[in-house]
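Input record, target 12 of the design panel.
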């Protein structure tokens, strides 16, 4: 059974944060359709169900990830309005442009730009010197 689902979802977007929200809204609308018997609610339910299935089974992963990043940036503005949290795009840029090292003596994380080969890193907290490959 596990291999069956693995083959179905191979190369597809799957479930992300926006997908979870659409599926929860779809289930809520399904319950509303059962109790309300309203045509408008039914049409919205069918459209949202189609969108949820489309997003989950989409092979255009880059476009779905972009939609999810925009959604997460909007959500983070409401969740952390005054903390100065990094946006999802900034976190993604950090992952692709920098490499994180951990100081062996104090455990401080140090961010070094990628692509500079072997570098000598000085910990800003304890001034310990160690080397690593960026």
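The sequence produced for target 12 reads:
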């Amino acid at each position: 059974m596990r291999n069956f689902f693995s083959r179905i979802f191979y190369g597809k977007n799957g479930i992300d944060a926006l997908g979870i929200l659409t599926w929860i809204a779809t289930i809520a609308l399904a319950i509303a359709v059962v109790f309300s018997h309203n045509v408008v609610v039914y049409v919205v339910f069918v459209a949202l169900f189609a969108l949820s299935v489309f997003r989950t089974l989409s092979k255009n992963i880059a476009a779905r990830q972009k939609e999810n990043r925009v959604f997460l940036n909007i959500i983070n503005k409401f969740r952390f309005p005054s903390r100065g949290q990094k946006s999802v795009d900034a976190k993604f840029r950090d992952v692709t442009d920098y490499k994180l090292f951990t100081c062996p003596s104090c455990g401080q994380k140090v961010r070094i730009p990628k692509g500079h080969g072997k570098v000598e890193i000085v910990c800003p907290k304890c001034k310990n010197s160690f080397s690593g490959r960026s």
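The two ends are 42 Å apart (CA to CA).
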